[in-house]
Specification:
Largest sheet of chain B: none
CATH class of the largest domain in chain A: Alpha Beta
Radius of gyration of chain B: 19 Å
Largest sheet of chain A: 6 strands, mixed
Order of helices and strands of chain B: HHHHHHHHHHHHH
Helix content of chain A: 25-40%
Oligomer: heterodimer
Number of strands of chain A: 14
Strand content of chain A: 25-35%
Mean pLDDT of chain B: 89
Helix content of chain B: over 70%
CATH topology of the largest domain in chain A: Rossmann fold
Low-confidence stretches of chain B: none
CATH architecture of the largest domain in chain A: 3-Layer(aba) Sandwich
Distance between the termini of chain B: 27 Å
Strand order of the largest sheet of chain A: 6-7-8-3-9-10
Radius of gyration of chain A: 24 Å
Strand content of chain B: under 5%
Structural class of chain A: alpha/beta
Structural class of chain B: mainly alpha
Shape of chain A: elongated
Number of domains of chain A: 2
Distance between the termini of chain A: 31 Å
Number of helices of chain A: 10
Chain lengths: 317, 241
């Protein structure tokens, strides 16, 4: 649905994008991650035809964004980072204007207005001037604007910035509810935003794509090994020796514990480390107090990937 | 066409969504009518010559103030990005904005209609000259607005936009003044008279005050307006953000 092939963009001497490529299938949701200033917004501006790339090609639904920008724009609903609102209009006037500008009229426009206002939770503020709205409502009005023409593709630049946790949850639910029928790219620099919504991520740093794929795979790749935490009410030395004998285990690190012992056990990703430790404790008849696999936080993944990409932590927000 | 109408309606309404529109119109009417009426009874002539005669200079300040927000405001609030990603041509958006500003100016100008009515009651004026004066005033405003819309696009904030607009309109006005043209001719022979005839305003507007509308003057006003509107479209297409 969206194909980005080798795009580069410079602003003066600053190289904002350097050979960026990725693609997105119909109905997919892509989390576009990166620190501030990494090039997320620039990429989105190029896909939405607001900017032209210096090099490379972008096609949306098979249409080149430079050759037929109007056809591309028709298919896309876009929420820019700076929410484009007219403070002198109320929500109804504003959404009606965008709807008309997008070619809607009559009953169709009324239907879409009703749907957007409902879906984005704007019913109570419908007649309020946009200039008087809170940040959260402004953001939601921007989102409603992007949805007004029921686009196949949604490009959302930092859709949850400036929202309180409850509002973030609401936007997340909305994005999830659109999953499947719409192709969505949303950018964020807050890593926790991604995993509840999608698994597919592209990570960009200093204008370069440093990772593209499934969130789980990426974290594994970034962390290198699988880690399991185990706690057993038994003598530490005996347990450690037994753990070391397991074929799946490569490393055993003792951890501080109260009553019994605790270990961090490491091994390759393709083995059933938890199962092996579980079987061992059952065989020996030990009392287990704890057993869980380490989950890799997005932060760890992200820091590890950006580090690997440029050898330093420079630019990691 | 539909797209231009959509933009036009929003832009025109936005003038009246704030008190600025009313302040502008009142200032326009009070200043112009005031200036005119001060001399009217002294002159004792039943015509609008002095009213129209003031316009080219007065509008240098008034028109850029009307047009300053057209692009600068959109760039400041971010709606520029919305407009440029709507399924519309840059030209359609630009024309919608320009025509909205023009309509606003024409509303202000229509507010001066009591003057010709009053004169017709008091005396026996040359109706043809009044008509051609109004047509000239509309064309003059249209030209300044095209300049002001263009300069508004070059700037990110309204203050710079209005100052640049005033300077640009003033340049067009001043190169038409014979003395200035002669001075420029002194520096670069021929350039002054060239600018005076093809860019300069006074000569072309002067004829309309006398009640003469020639094809050449029409071509001058409409042509130069079209030039600035085309520059605006080119700028929109070639923009680097």
């Amino acid at each position: 649905m969206i194909e980005v092939r080798g795009i580069s963009k410079s602003f003066g001497t600053m190289r904002a994008l350097d050979d960026v490529s990725f693609s997105l299938g119909r109905g997919e949701i892509l989390g576009f991650l990166g620190p501030n200033g990494a090039g997320k917004s620039t990429t989105m501006k190029i896909i939405t035809t607001f900017l032209a790339a210096d090099q490379g090609q972008v096609t949306v639904d098979g249409i080149d964004v430079l050759e037929k920008p109007l056809d591309v724009r028709r298919r896309i609903g876009y929420l820019p980072e700076n929410v484009p609102l007219y403070p002198d209009m109320n929500i109804q006037e504003y959404l009606t204007f965008v709807g008309q500008a997008r070619g809607l009229s009559g009953g169709q426009l009324r239907n879409r207005l009703g749907w957007c206002v409902e879906a984005c939770g704007l019913v109570t503020e419908y007649k309020k001037n946009i200039g008087e709205l809170s940040k959260g409502y402004k953001q939601r009005t921007g989102l409603a604007q992007a949805l007004i023409h029921d686009p196949e593709i949604l490009i959302l630049d930092e859709p949850t910035s400036g929202l309180d946790p409850l509002q973030i949850l609401g936007i997340r639910e909305l994005i999830k509810s659109l999953a499947g029928e719409k192709t969505i790219i949303f950018s964020t620099h807050i890593l926790q935003e991604v995993s509840p919504v999608t698994n597919r991520v592209v990570i960009i740093n200093e204008g370069r794509i440093i990772a593209d794929g499934n969130l789980g795979d990426l974290s594994r790749e970034a962390m290198g090994t699988n880690r399991v935490f185990v706690g057993i009410r038994e003598d530490g030395a005996t347990v450690e020796a037994a753990l070391r004998e397991l074929g799946e285990v490569t490393e055993v690190h003792p951890l501080p514990a109260e009553g019994g012992c605790r270990f961090e056990v490491r091994g390759p990703f393709d083995t059933d480390l938890v199962g092996a430790v579980d079987r061992l404790t059952r065989d020996r008849g030990w009392e287990m107090t704890q057993l869980h696999e380490a989950t890799f936080s997005l932060e760890d993944t992200f820091i590890s990937l950006t580090k690997r990409a440029d050898g330093s932590l420079k630019g990691v927000a | 066409m539909q797209n231009t109408i959509t933009i036009f309606r929003r832009e025109f309404a936005s003038y009246f969504n704030s008190p600025i529109a009313y302040i502008f119109i009142i200032a326009f009417l009070v200043l112009n009518s005031g200036l005119f009426m001060t001399g009217f009874f002294l002159n004792g002539a039943a015509d609008l010559r002095s009213f129209f005669g003031n316009l080219p200079f007065f509008l240098i300040f008034f028109i850029p103030a009307v047009s300053m927000r057209l692009w600068a405001e959109d760039k400041r609030t971010g709606t520029f990005e919305l407009l440029m990603t709507l399924p519309m041509r840059a030209r359609e958006v630009m024309m919608g904005k320009y025509l909205a500003a023009l309509a606003f100016y024409l509303v202000s100008l229509a507010g001066t209609l009591p003057l010709p009515i009053m004169i017709s009651i008091l005396g026996n004026p040359d109706v043809g000259a009044m008509w051609s004066g109004y047509i000239g005033a509309a064309l003059l405003g249209g030209l300044y607005l095209a300049v002001g819309t263009f300069t508004s696009g070059l700037m990110r904030d309204q203050i710079s936009a209005v100052i640049l607009g005033i300077m640009a309109c003033f340049s067009i006005f001043i190169v038409g003044v014979p003395g200035v043209a002669a001075t420029i001719d002194g520096w670069v022979p021929g350039l002054g008279s060239f600018l005076q005839h093809y860019v300069g305003l006074s000569g072309h507007f002067e004829m309309m005050l006398r009640g003469v509308i020639t094809l050449g003057d029409l071509v001058y006003f409409l042509g130069l307006t079209a030039v600035f509107l085309s520059l605006n479209t080119l700028w929109l297409k070639g923009r680097k953000y």
